[in-house]
Amino acid sequence: MQIKYLKAFADNYIWLIIHQQQIIVVDPGESYNVLNYIIDNNLRLKAILLTHDHSDHVSGVEDILAHYQVPVYGNCNYATINIVENECIKLFDDIGIKVIITPGHTYNSVCYMIEHNEQKCLFCGDTLFASGCGRVFTNDYYAMYQSLLKIKSLDTKTLIYPAHEYTLKNIDFALHLMPSEQMLDEYYKQCKINYQLNHTTLPTTLVNELKFNPFLKLDDTRIISCMENVFNVSINSNYDCFKYLRMYKNNF
Ligand SMILES: [Zn+2]
Q: What backbone phi and psi angles, to 5 degrees, belong to 180?
């Protein structure tokens, strides 16, 4: 199994899962580059997976379906096959695709955990980003917090494939919260080099996110006292910390 990507719009990733000359496309916000890729590489499209229904994730679906009649999995109106929590989608004999329902960014957000041999890959759309998380357009901060807890509980070796390249901006924010964190400074430099060399900072790993992502470090005293000072409140739970932190990031 190979994971490749196409870039779309300013900073979207369309992730491609390729196995035995077959391809699964995650969140095709555009179609022409996907269609060209399939033809140029002589692949057979097997399915489309959708993490949610924002236009930059689904705008290519209709045109792709005009060329290839394949199932579209998701929790939104663009899906032709609706999925439920913990469902295992069977597209290949030796690859498991597990559904993790993760509302918060939208009501219909989902993540897909793909397992092949020992490799675990999470396609998380706009729920988690490298060193950040998605905006809570539903205003249901508690649902988003619970969704991030689900991701946090996965195998720490999981490779994480978010749908946007926001890493450097997000590390800037993390450095603002944890200014004396030398590891974070080094991580920023490494990501910058990776971006220059490979045009991407992704995938990230859950190990990195547990170390560097403020939204998964809600009991870090530096983050808690920053939120208490900014909002003039007393933070009594990880959830409180998450809610204020996400609101703070909205205007950062
Ligand atoms: Zn979105």
A: -95, 10
What's the 131 CA to ligand 1 centre distance in angstroms? 17
Question: What is the rounded distance in angstroms from the CA atom of residue 155 to the CA atom of residue 28?
Answer: 27
Closest to 169 (Cα-Cα) out of 14, 27, 10 = 10
Range of the domain at 132: 2-250
* Distance set, CA 148 to CA 28, 98, 141, 143, 189 (Å): 24, 16, 11, 9, 26
Non-local (6+) Cβ contacts of 153 within 8 A are: none
What is the largest distance, in Å, between two alpha-carbon atoms of the chain? Answer: 59
Residue 42 CA, ligand 1 centroid: distance in Å: 30
226 C-alpha to ligand 1 centroid (Å): 27
Going by C-alpha positions, the residue among 55, 46, 52 that lies closest to residue 22 is: 46
Residue 165 has pLDDT above 90, yes or no: yes
Report how far ligand 1's centroid is from the alpha carbon of 89 (Å). 23
Name the pTM for this structure: 0.97
Q: In the block, which residue shows the tokens 């619970």? A: 146
DSSP state of 160: E
Number of neighbouring beta carbons within 10 Å of residue 15: 25
Contact (CB, 8 A) for 62 and 111? no
- Name the domain count of the chain: 1
Q: For the segment 68-83, what is each residue's pLDDT rounded down to a tens digit?
A: 999 999 999 999 999 9
Instruction: State yes or no: pLDDT of 228 exceeds 90.
Output: yes
Residue 13 maps to which CATH number? 3.60.15.10
Give the pLDDT confidence score for residue 132 in this predicted structure: 98
- Residue 168's closest CA among 184, 182, 156? 184
